[in-house]
Design goal:
The chain is mostly helical and 195 residues long. The protein has helices at 2-23, 30-37, 41-47, 51-75, 81-98, 105-113, 118-141, 147-168, 172-188, 191-194. The chain has 10 helices and no strands.
Length: 195
């Protein structure tokens, strides 16, 4: 019985993530989400006391997916720090290519909800902090000067490029930004990292 309950919750979160990713949080209704998840409203409210609670669970699901598919495989690989950072950029760009340049769902949620709801802002801030810390750790390993600052630069550059790729419905600018970002990293990391 417990497994079915967990699967039902996951189904609700998965369908909500798809709908919210496509049309935004505010334009997504609980009715639409329960229809897509093929559950009744009672099931929804069993797991989520409010749409806000579901929205926070969606943020967690997106963050888990991002860290499991992009951050950990690229930044934890057995390679030199620069190679891991370049791999991270490549994997992030390829993920966007595969999803049709829809942009970063976490970035879009931050734009939509970051200044409207404190719980959303705090959850998103924690996700971006975790991402930044993961990058800073690798930069520090590579002997980078001011790794936290450089990590924020990488994160902000990628988020901006993802936003533009969504607006332009095209990956050309994202590819150019990724190449430029890698060139900047090669210049800023100590030469010992390049060997």
């Amino acid at each position: 019985m417990g497994r079915i309950l967990t699967e039902t919750r996951q189904q609700i979160v998965q369908r909500a993530a798809e709908i919210i990713s496509r049309q935004g949080y505010h334009r997504s209704s609980v009715d639409e989400i329960v229809r897509a998840a093929d559950v009744c409203k009672g099931n929804f409210y069993y797991y989520f006391p409010s749409k806000t609670a579901l929205g926070l669970a969606v943020i967690d699901a997106w963050a888990d997916e991002f860290f499991d598919l992009v951050v950990f495989p690229s930044l934890s690989a057995p390679a030199e720090p620069l190679a891991r950072l370049e791999r991270f950029i490549d994997v992030a760009v390829e993920a966007q290519r595969q999803n049709g340049y829809l942009g970063c769902p976490l970035g879009r949620m931050a734009l939509e909800m970051g200044d409207l709801d404190e719980a959303f802002r705090e959850r998103l801030e924690a996700v971006f902090h975790r991402w930044c810390s993961s990058l800073a750790e690798v930069l520090s390993e590579g002997g980078a000067d001011r790794p936290a600052e450089q990590a924020r630069f990488i994160m902000a550059t990628l988020e901006g490029a993802l936003l533009l790729a969504k607006v332009q419905a095209d990956g050309e600018g994202l590819d150019r930004t990724a190449a430029r970002l890698k060139a900047v990293l090669r210049q800023q990391l100590p030469t010992a990292v390049l060997q």
